[in-house]
Amino acid sequence: MIKLKQLIKESLSKMVFSKSIKPKHKKRMNIETKMFPSNPKLTMTPPPANDSNETRTELFKLLAYNNGVIDRPMVKEYDDLIKPYMELIEKYNVDITEDDLEQIIDEGAKFTLKIKYKYNRPRPYQIAEHYGIEDFKRHKLDTANTPSYPSGHALQGRLIGLILTDKDPKHQNEYMAVSQRISDSRIMARAHYPSDKVYGEKLADELYDNIKNLKESLNKVVYTKPNFEFEWEEANRYPNLFSSKEDWLEKAKVGKMMTIDCNMNINNTDMCQPDVDDLEPAKLKRVKKMINSGRIELPIVIKHKGQYELIAGNTRLVGMVNNNITTKAWVIEL
After folding, report:
1. pLDDT digits (tens, 9 = 90+) for 224-244
2. What is the mean pLDDT of the chain?
3. Do 272 and 256 belong together in one domain?
4. How many domains does the chain have?
5. Which CATH number is 76's domain given?
6. Are residues 19 and 143 in the same domain?
7. What residue numbers bound the domain in which 181 lies?
8. Are residues 200 and 233 in the same domain?
9. DSSP 49-66
């Protein structure tokens, strides 16, 4: 005869968050990703078992967190993944938009949801109810409607922090501090076990590595030859070097693509001090579109008497620097 205690233990061990996957979650799990490979290399680490001492200990850690007081304003503030980062993005004029952040979140969610439903771990309140922990209050969140493991906020928040650090290394500490507060807010709300948070952050690091690897493997940026006809307007400012449009076209076509850097002391460019404040908004918009397309028309540099000078493409060079893209140009030696 099976004892009641054994039945209770078996029901706990088999408990899941949900017996079905919501249609909207299925849809998000099947979106096409542009930032990541379709099957990124991610470590599959199962959560602690429902009936383990580790899970039970985690429940009581949640009850003791912040001396047992839920900081509800903090939870509400960092439930929003975008707003805390946008404040820093605007403060430091980082070349990333709210739409870019939405894309990071949406594409990161594809993999988060797949892993969540793979393990289908119950939320802490579900296990707490099983144990009859009556004082297990929680901050109810609309974003806590998926299986517990891993924490999607921990993953997506850290992923955004890492990407912003890549674009603006000088303010790494501030971006990663926001990331940490986002992760901690889910513990504060008792929406996640500490192990959900740890695994979410680990997956964020792995997804970030996959972004970098994808860029390298696909050679994401394609550099195209300049439109020499169009750039004659700029070249015409150098009559001592180009006597006519025909002379310009002849000399320009025998140039070559080269990687350029600040050690070359190139005149007439802001690439070594890439501040977008002084650049024309319309040009910045065109360059952003160009970079997003993965095809960049090469800026033009002339080399004359051992000196380098930019003829056209200053905004493109600044855009490359701010997006960690190798700075290349069409170099014409005279």
Report:
1. 999 999 999 999 999 999 999
2. 89
3. yes
4. 2
5. 1.20.144.10
6. yes
7. 4-218
8. no
9. PTTSHHHHHHHHHHHHGG
CA torsion sign, 4 to 6 to 8 to 14?
negative
Cα–Cα distance between 10 and 68 in angstroms, integer? 30
Among 170, 191, 218, residue at a domain's last position: 218
* CB-count exposure of residue 220 (10 Å: 0-12, 13-18, 19+): exposed
Going by pLDDT thresholds of 50, 70 and 90, the confidence category of residue 325 is confident
Confidence check: pLDDT of 115 > 50 = yes
Arithmetic mean of pLDDT, 163-190? 94
Q: DSSP of 154-188, one letter per residue?
A: HHHHHHHHHHHHHH-GGGHHHHHHHHHHHHHHHHH
Distances (CA, A) of 321 to 171, 227, 309, 316: 16, 22, 18, 9
Is there a single domain that holds both residue 247 and residue 166? no
In whole angstroms, what is the distance from residue 313 CA to residue 266 CA? 13
313 & 170 share domain: no
Domain boundary among 196, 218, 240: 218
Question: Which of 100-104, 123-127, 218-222, 269-273 comes out lowest in average pLDDT?
Answer: 218-222
pTM, whole model, 2 decimals?
0.65
